[in-house]
Amino acid sequence: AVVVVAATRLLFATVSTEDVVQWTDADLKELVLDLSVRHPSIRADLCAQLVLFVVSHADVHTNISRVTCDLVVCGTVANATNELPELLVALLSHGIAPTLKSWMHDSRFGQRFLRHVTSHRSTDTWSATDHTLAAYLGVLKLLVHAKVCPVADAVELLLDTCLFGTNTSSNSVLCKSSATRAVASDLVVELAATASVWASSLAPRVSRFHDQVRDVLDTLGRPWNLTPRDEARDGVTAAGLYNPGCICYMNALLQQLFHVPSFRECILATAVDPAESSAAEEVAELQAVFVSLIHTTRKWHDPSAFGVSHRDVDGQPTDLRVQMDADEFLGMLLDRVESVLLTKPASKMTIGTLGFGGQLVNQIITEHGHVSEREEPFVVLSLDVQHKPSIEASLGSYVQGETLEGDNAYFCEVVKEKVRATKRVCIKTLPETLVVHLKRFEFDYDTMEKVKLNDFVEFPTQLNMAPFTAEGLQRGPGHDEAWYALKGVVVHSGTADMGHYYSFIQDRAESTDWWEFNDQIVRPFSLDNLTDECFGGDEVVDKWDPTTRAYASVLQPKKRSAYMLVYDRVSKTPVESPPLPMSSTALALQASVQVENDHFDRLLHAMDGAHIRFLRSLWPQAPAEHQPPLLHAIMDLASLLPAGSTVVPALDVHSAAASMGSWFLHQATEVIMPHESAPVVIGDYAHRRTWLFDMTFLCHEPSVRHAFWDLALASVRHVIATDADVVATFLDHIVTLFFQRDSIEVSASCMSTVVSNAALGAALQPVAAFLEATTDGDRAVDVAHVLVERCHVLHHFGASFTVDDCPEGYMQPTARVATFPIEQRFLTRLVEAGPRVPSVDVDSFVARTACILSCGFEKLMATVVAHVVEDDADVSLTVIRALLEVLDQVKTTHLEAMFDVFNALLGVADAYSSLRAAALLSPESGLLEVAEFFKLHRTLHQYTYYVLEFCLTSEVPAVVEYLNDVKDQVAWVRPWMWSYLRGDVPVGDLTAGDDDTDVQTVLELTEQLFGQLGGNDQDDEEGPNQEDNKTVELKGKHGAMSVGKLVDSSEGILHSNNPAEVET
């Protein structure tokens, strides 16, 4: 190699341009092949020397490039690897001369190259890059830039052959690794600048591919946090088996049976009609498992259907949540396989002909040499492990036998008398595949429970079974050999009550490597660990000692040990037999698996962050009419990806809203998966999933959520002026979704989740931020009118509070409290924008006054009350009545907040100010009546004082005027106030003041209002400080006041409708 490199450098250092130009095409081809193909270990260095030479010699560059182009597309170069197309990339990247470009056009090199790439047998996988394919894509990129390759043809090649697949299959795409898919995607983005390419080539294929992906997602129930790349096989590792419950014993044995070639071929070659019998149904499902293990592109197959088809001895289906004994399962399964095979006239196979099972012989050998034999078949050889250091020792004990003598002597039919004899069981016929069961479980009659024996039992990788056969025992040791090679081990880890089964299996077909099959997990296994993992015995572990407060080494039994062994007979002259052809049923199953593979491959191509970024890169170049499908695909896929798998760059939301705002708002609320009746359960109700729902509760990628809500906000602002109905529908879905705080259960075919409490509150934070943003900026007033008048946001707000079975203080769940600050701000802004609040919203809102105030919404409450009562007498009286009914509930907790609401109500300056003051302060049904009622209750005198203080200190003209009108009816106020505040001084004596200015102010206001009435009212009314030994006749709580009393007090003021007719 060193000599060749040196010679090449010498050649390029000494040869002249004139000499090379005179070389024929044949000479140049030999040179290129010599440098790029024929010296594998150094060809990269040789190609670099060639490129370094030709870049400074234009004529030579053109000729070498032309010859290399021909060599690349001819497809007849032996042992060609990626160096030849990589050499072409290096040559063309230094420029394509006009003469070379002319030759490419004349020879239609671009079209020939595209056909060559299409026929390439790609070795690209999800985990390994095909460097030859990557080089081909590099050549294609240079050809497109040089405009010697048809753009439309290149786009079709890239989409159909490299990225998406055809309309019928996506399994044959060339690009599977991240590296090659990135190159192909970038090239498509470059070619997308041509408008004609969109209509003719790009848009139809992108739409078709994502329609197919959408169908697959709908079939799966649109699972979220979807990472199909984690489930893809790498092409080297075998497939595992999914465990839906407690069927590890099935999975471990199914993998062992599948890796026995003769058994697998027989199952696949048998045409099975599952309708014939329950056994045939089980064998048909077994066949489906085997076909999937061979052909699936996933890391695992789900054997649940097989598990259900397997029935116990009573004919009952297997409970997938209950574990069974592996040895028992294997015996039942092989019996049913044999029963089905025996019904097939073409096969008439038995378990023995499949390689399993041999013959045992029960022998009685008399002292005279007479032998009595009785044969019986066996499939699994069960051996004792207790006090047996190895399986050879256990086998020796198995065939040792017992002596029959004395009273237990054997009656010999030949000599017609009892004689001394030996009784034993040994092997008469050995099977091709020997299955050994180590009896690790036994019943302890002392403790009356099943226990596991963790004894150390060694077993070899090469086992001679001849000494344990009838013939071997007769002839003695050393005469015969029947060697078996260990091919599989079924391990049980755990105790007699609970545990887990898994398998170690040697690859019989392609190598001698060992693999661990642990349900879905398949990974390499080293025989060096066989002793530690399978022989059982004791092990030293570190355990925490609470006495010494340190870890101490202790000896304890291993919980993992071999339970079943699988040996293959070693033949001195192996016979190669042709594989059996697959049956029609197996071929049909293979076609079905291929369809599943196509679906899975589409998910692999689509559910990837790089693909989302590819679609996003196409966005700026897409014509307006093709942007909605692109956005649909981006949001559809990105909403189901896990957090961190992709970052969606921000869209130009203003241009997007202008071009497709109405489409976006409509699409966001469209039901997806219409075939699913109840994929979402909220409380006691079933709901359908929508794009909006998925973005809110299932999307975990922040950049995707931000892009969605930014576009939603821009679309609402842009569309509301032209299509308010679409905006109203969208916002109505938003409001309904936002204010429901029950736990949400979402289910798909392969997963489910529950969103509640803190998680639910966190998921709704972006929604709250969106709603707040709608109250600011452009069209805020229009949006406010839609939210309040058409979406009934105040009704939903009030109804969202938990009232029934509510804890003390009206505490709300975590999910409800999470968005309180934002709700306070945006709802206040909505009301301040001046929309008309529907009467039903007023009723439901005011009905939750106590709860709303207890949650800190006094500012919102005051704003809403002041807004709804303005210029509306009926609503004013309805609201006042409701507020007075609520007053009793909050008198000891939120009285000050309630007074703030009353102040806001009284502060509304309109034609009905006097009406509201009269209704609220009325001595018959208002605050003055409340004060008079509670002045008789000593424990609530302070409450009476606060109510009176509120009335007396109000500066609202309507209140002052009304108090002057009714002061004769409430003359008791003056003596009561003096008695409560200064019971030790005469009524009206303001000279005896103290340092409490608030008290002094209240008394001064009392005197201003009532002082001119004259007389010492202290004798007429009992003050709060006087002793009261009388029984007080209660008038009933003011919360139960009739509407009639309230209306009667303002009858002289109203001129129109009777408020009594306004029903809640």
From TrEMBL:
Record carries keyword Transmembrane helix: no
Catalytic activity: Thiol-dependent hydrolysis of ester, thioester, amide, peptide and isopeptide bonds formed by the C-terminal Gly of ubiquitin (a 76-residue protein attached to proteins as an intracellular targeting signal)
UniProt region (Disordered), positions on chain: 1013-1064
Gene3D superfamilies linked to this entry: Cysteine proteinases
Gene Ontology MF annotations: cysteine-type deubiquitinase activity
Keyword rRNA processing in record: no
Compositional bias (Polar residues): 1055-1064
One GO CC term, this protein: cytosol
SUPFAM superfamilies the UniProt entry points to: Cysteine proteinases (SSF54001)
Protein's recorded name: ubiquitinyl hydrolase 1
Lineage: Eukaryota, Sar, Stramenopiles, Oomycota, Saprolegniomycetes
An individual GO BP term: protein deubiquitination
Chain intervals with Basic and acidic residues compositional bias: 1027-1036
Record's signal peptide: 1-17
Matches recorded under PANTHER family: UBIQUITIN CARBOXYL-TERMINAL HYDROLASE, UBIQUITIN CARBOXYL-TERMINAL HYDROLASE 36
EC top class, as a word: hydrolase
Domain USP: 239-570
E.C. designation(s): 3.4.19.12
Family label: Belongs to the peptidase C19 family.
UniProt keyword list: Hydrolase, Protease, Signal, Thiol protease, Ubl conjugation pathway
